[in-house]
Amino acid sequence: MTVEGATTISTGDAKALFDKGAIFVDVRGGADFEAGRIPGAVHLDLKSTLTEAALMEAADKGQDIVMYCNGQKCGLSSAASVKAVAWGFTAVKYFRDGFPGWQTAGYPVE
After folding, report:
1. Is 59 helix (H, G, I), strand (E, B) or coil?
2. CA–CA separation, 90 vs 32, rounded Å?
């Protein structure tokens, strides 16, 4: 899946953005977030806390923002990316492989 206005990124791309200080936004529910996440990720549950104002508190509209959830079968991060683009965020990255892809690659987790 692709998201118009957002860049779909691979796990390697996500790690490079992580190393450059991009803002990672975990849009999964609270139990998933508490069970494990990308270090430093902002938790904005798509169903309850992801709003334009909340996203503005986490990042500027031109800053790299990486949206992720539970992998390719999880539609939450694509929906969150669509919202962010509609709100005027211009550097939205859709990390389709999400947390499972990050873990599988052996990258650090919290």
Report:
1. coil
2. 27
The residues that bridge with 44 in the sheet, in sequence order, are: none
Take residue 80 and report the two structure tokens written for it.
Answer: 């969150």
Place of tokens 């509209």: 61
For each of the domains in the chain, give its residue range(s) and CATH number, in order of start. Answer: 7-103 (3.40.250.10)
The beta strand positions in the chain, using DSSP E, are: 7-9, 23-26, 42-43, 65-68, 92-95
| Rounded distance between C-alpha atoms, residue 50 and residue 2, angstroms | 20
Max intra-chain CA distance, the chain:
33
Q: How many CB atoms lie within 10 A of CB 36?
A: 13
pTM of the model: 0.95
- 29-58 pLDDT, tens digit per residue, is 999 999 999 999 999 999 999 999 999 999
Tokens of 55: 């996203």
The two tokens of residue 12 are 């390697």
